[in-house]
Amino acid sequence: MAAPEKTPSEGAPAQPLHVAIVMDGNGRWAKRRGMPRSLGHRAGVEALKRTVSAAAELGIRWLTVFGFSTENWSRPAAEVAELMALPKRYFESDIARLEREGVRVRVIGRREGLSGELVRLIEDAEARTAGNDAFFLNIAFNYGGQADIADAARRFAEAVAAGRAKPSDLDEAAFASHLATAGLPPPDLIVRPSGEQRLSNFLLWEAAYSELIFQDVLWPDYGLEHLKAALAAYAARDRRYGAVAQDDVLAAG
Ligand code: FPP
Fold it and tell me: Is the predicted pLDDT of residue 32 greater than 90, yes or no?
């Protein structure tokens, strides 16, 4: 993953290039309506469709969404099965349009544990859109930040053991090149709807200097207006990357 492009003196850029979203609140949305959780997840797919369009409309280039975590396997088997069916539901209805509109789809996370049919579906979506570069949609599925860091460490250790790398080769950039997010810019903004305020193992390495915004809306209700509000809050942030603001540099001098 590339180092942050902005320098501290640039402060808050008006527009994040890369937004990441924890799509949370499907279960509560369904419960409030007296519906099974599965219908909340299906409504979550509709919110994803709306949000991809909204993000492109608002000038975002990279959108990364959390669809299934390495910890979600601990949910009841019937709910896991429903969650496993969501990529199929999404790709069957939208992959042709995503392909046509120049969206490159990438699914990050462990492929082990997924059914052969799902892996083929993911590979097909990635292959069909591989040449696109108008918008980048990354779906984190069977993804965990800690798992990804452990996998990256293992891959680097294997390279050392095979004589392809030396321990002294390892710095932040070299390590990031072994992560599932290699080649993506770090997320400028991570949004979590549903009122919960935590990362839940999402993009742990990549979030080092992300701005975090928590919104009081359940994911199935999410759309253009909520994303606009998140961007407005982001625009008011002062990004310093551990340095000091330019005014304070002058004041200190
Ligand atoms: C968390 O909400 C949400 C999930 C575990 C699933 C998120 C998935 C989608 C929104 C659709 C994804 C689409 C694709 C293509 C993968 P929750 O169920 O934990 O909600 P709760 O906290 O209210 O119970």
Answer: yes
